[in-house]
Design brief:
Rossmann fold, 2 domains, 15 helices, membrane, binds guanosine-5'-diphosphate, EC 2.4.1.-, alpha/beta, 14 strands, globular
Length: 487
């Protein structure tokens, strides 16, 4: 147990019920085996089947990853542009492009990993945007970072117009669906690009259909661009549904487990997390995380501040305040303490909350409230090193709280809720920025993140449809009416 003065040491399971493999060198990544020590919420249990599948994936990453003969052969094939006999079916690869903010990148990587697990592909991630510095390696004895000599030199610029995109290949008849199961491997392209950026067209989204997955199955190299959490879309594919249900009997834990498996803060980030936690959060009896995501150039909003106080006080997350001058001041024998962790680009919100709890007594008279903010970077920057490091540390700190309040639409908040295993109170998006929504917030019904730009096409019926109604396990999100999430 952390903090709490003389409290007895709590035993903790550093391997998270078998989710993590044993035997990594601990100095290269302290967070991997120390994280359980910092989590009061031990989280949900992974299924035995998921644990088995993860060990198999680790073996696959070892057998086919960078530095192996299989990898050299696969690179040769990619360079030649043709599928040849050697090792063509033994090892297949998925390269995930890393772009956008830290939250988006984490969700995209977890989605790519889920797809790799379902299709027996080796996952390699684009190391740009600090992906190589923010996280430790997740697989033992190999690397998940795509090595620099990758022959598709401009892959990070792939877009909707790339001729090798799956939808363009279909349109140009480089790929034909007619005889999907009979296409000889030699006639398939050696790679295709999967465009699932938020401007993906209906044709790009055919990726989520069974028939298209059968065609993609034998293509050795896939390069994928997404900034979303696409797993709810994968569940719409009947070919993946049974396996997903077997891997995750509790479906809303997909990101919870994959996130805890994949994303271990690097030693530098872990230093930021643990020093902050020990100084400001460890000794409190209760920790409340509040994520105030300020988008674009929004100015400080009194309505948003009111939304936060209404939500936290009416839902009993923070104590209500006395409005009159105190009549008596008594020091309770056992003072309760709440540490509030506010993450935001702006300092105005935590400063206001801090003053509120200093200038007024709390109505219940027994809770001391401290308000803390690790950083206030003022504006969002892309690709700035210390900025991303702090963002990742703050996401992780939020995940260590007991109760969480998040902002609608934010992947930063989704990652915190998933890692923490917390169903957060979501601050609804106001229709008008100067009016507080009523109610101000609602508790999410699932731990899993929201897929912001899902397909609106029913593959079976072959027409546009409300994909939120195809199966009961995939519902519309609490914070985004057209988004989809697993329940
Ligand atoms: P989203 O845009 O809310 O979905 O979250 P992302 O993490 O993908 O992108 C937002 C980026 O803005 C983050 O990665 C940070 O770089 C920055 N950012 C936004 N809010 C915060 C915050 O509270 N703290 C810090 N340190 N950075 C933030």
């Amino acid at each position: 147990r952390r903090g709490g003065g003389s409290a007895p040491a709590r035993s903790y399971d550093k391997l998270l019920n078998g989710l993590l493999a044993d035997g990594f060198d601990k100095e290269s990544c302290y967070s991997r085996y120390q994280s359980a020590m910092y989590r009061r919420n031990a989280g949900r249990k992974p299924s035995v089947y998921l644990v088995t599948k993860l060990r198999q994936q680790e073996a696959l990453q070892n057998r086919c990853g960078p530095g192996t003969v299989a990898y050299s052969n696969a690179l040769e094939q990619l360079k030649s542009g043709k599928i040849s006999g050697i090792g063509s079916q033994e090892c297949k690869y998925l390269v995930s492009i890393s772009y956008q903010g830290v939250g988006n990148r984490i969700l995209a990587t977890a989605s790519a990993f889920m797809y790799a697990l379902l299709t027996n592909r080796v996952l390699l991630i684009d190391p740009s945007n600090e992906m190589d510095e923010l996280f430790c390696e997740p697989f033992p004895n190999t690397t998940w970072l795509l090595p620099p000599e990758f022959p598709l030199t401009s892959y990070t610029n792939f877009s909707q117009d790339t001729v090798q995109s799956y939808s363009n290949m279909l349109r140009n008849k480089v790929l034909m669906k007619a005889d999907v199961d009979d296409v000889p491997a030699a006639q398939l392209p050696v790679f295709t690009y999967i465009h699932l950026h938020h401007d993906a067209t209906q044709d790009d989204n055919l990726f989520f259909c069974d028939e298209d997955q059968r065609l993609l199955r034998n293509i050795p190299w896939l390069v994928m661009r997404t900034d979303s959490y696409i797993v709810p879309g994968l569940f719409l594919d009947t070919g993946f549904r049974e396996e997903l249900t077997r891997l995750f009997p509790e479906l809303d834990t997909v990101f919870h487990h994959l996130g805890r498996y994949l994303f271990h803060p690097s030693n530098h980030v872990w230093g930021l997390i643990t020093r902050y936690y020990d100084a400001y959060l460890a000794s409190a009896q209760q920790r409340v995380g509040i994520q105030v995501r300020v988008f674009g150039s929004e100015s400080n909003s009194p309505a948003l501040l009111e939304q936060i106080t209404m939500c936290t006080q009416k839902r009993g997350l923070l104590p209500e305040l006395h409005t009159e001058v105190e009549k008596s001041i008594v020091r309770a024998a056992s003072q309760k303490s709440k540490a509030v962790l506010v993450t935001s680009l702006k300092s105005w919100y935590p400063e206001k909350l801090k003053s509120m709890y200093w200038e007024h007594a709390v109505a219940t008279g027994e809770a001391a409230v401290s308000v803390n903010q690790p950083s206030h970077e003022e504006f969002q920057h892309y690709g700035a090193k210390s900025h991303d490091t702090k963002a990742w540390a703050e996401i992780y700190l939020l995940s260590l709280t007991d109760t969480l309040v998040t902002t609608a639409w934010s992947t930063f908040g989704y990652v915190a809720q998933g890692l923490g295993g917390i169903r957060p109170w979501v601050l609804y998006k106001p229709e008008n920025n100067s009016v507080v929504p009523d109610p101000p917030c609602g508790q999410d019904f699932s731990l899993d993140p929201c897929f912001h730009q899902p397909p609106f096409y029913d593959c079976r019926l072959k027409h546009w449809a409300g994909t939120g109604k195809i199966v009961p396990q995939v519902k519309h999100c609490i914070d985004r009416a057209w988004g989809l999430k697993l329940v």
